[in-house]
Write a structure and sequence with these properties.
One of its GO terms (molecular function) is ATP binding. This protein is an alpha/beta fold. It contains ten helices and twelve strands. The termini are far apart.
Length: 256
């Protein structure tokens, strides 16, 4: 057992981190918006280096699962441990500082701030002290961003903004990336480019949770898949298991 003392802004967070323990261990999550009960006992585990996809039709609770894990919508019942840290009573920024790069729906690119500034502002050693993702490596991974380095981020195309959002998350030297609908609304060629980048990121050893609608890419890149229906996990297994029973995707996503 490794006991790590982590800096979290002005507050020190003591985290008992077991290197063998999962990066994320969420059990029995029940999440509400007001009186509306959206998650009904979701369990989710993510191990180091693993790529996990969240599948499900619109409105089934994928984004809410991510927001529950990150503390934006804290679950009313259940427990989330991130790299050993019990996240109850933690603020989202404290949770993210455990080593999470979050790429939200909508990208979060600011007007009046250049590509370089977006990247430089985010730069930080990882929670484990790693600094292997720096601006040079991000620009090598995203040649389109290199070409647009001085441009206002908000004036980039949708695909370039998405790349900037992912590049910015990598500048945090995260142990895991969370990507919510990273290829939504993009042209097919740009989507392919982003999937290729996600494969590169996976090969670098960073774990990820990906919410996306492209099943073929998810089956190829993902190690494991959680299928969420009305706030409950109805399938948790690998690509082989999902391919072996097309009725699962057919029933719950209308594809198969
Ligand atoms: N801020 C909110 N207030 C009230 N209800 C919400 C809120 N956000 C989401 N919901 C509801 O919670 C349920 C789950 O939504 P969620 O966004 O998690 O689904 P999703 O699986 O990510 O689907 P999508 O792909 O449409 O985002 C839906 O019924 C949605 O209408």
């Amino acid at each position: 057992m490794n006991v790590a003392i982590k800096e979290a802004g002005t507050q020190r967070v003591d985290a008992a981190e077991d290197v063998e323990s999962p990066l994320i261990e969420a059990t029995g999550l029940h999440t509400f918006y007001g009186e509306s009960h959206v998650l009904h006992g979701v369990d989710l585990t993510l191990r180091a280096g693993e790529t996990l996809s969240l599948l499900g039709r619109n409105g089934m609770g994928k984004t809410t699962t991510l927001k529950s894990i990150l503390g934006f919508v804290p679950p009313r019942h259940g427990e989330v441990r991130i790299m050993g840290l019990d996240t109850r009573k933690r603020r989202p920024w404290q949770i993210i500082r455990q080593g999470i790069g979050y790429v939200p729906e909508g990208r979060g690119i600011f007007p009046g701030i250049s590509v370089r500034e977006h990247l430089v502002m985010a730069a930080r050693p990882g929670a484990d002290g790693r600094t292997d993702w720096d601006i040079e490596r991000v620009l090598d991974t995203f040649p389109r961003l290199k070409e647009r380095i001085g441009h206002d981020g908000s004036l980039l195309s949708g695909g370039e903004q998405q790349m900037l959002s992912i590049g910015r998350a990598l500048m945090l030297n995260p142990r895991l990336l969370i990507l919510d609908e990273a290829t939504e609304g993009l042209a097919p060629l740009i989507r392919d480019e982003i999937w290729s980048i996600l494969r590169t990121i996976k090969a670098s050893g960073i774990a990820s949770i990906i919410v996306d609608k492209n099943i073929d890419n998810l089956l190829e890149v993902g190690d494991r898949h959680l299928l969420i229906v009305k706030g409950k996990v109805v399938f948790d297994g690998d690509s082989q298991a999902l391919r072996a029973d097309p009725s699962i995707l057919d029933t719950h996503l209308g594809v198969g």
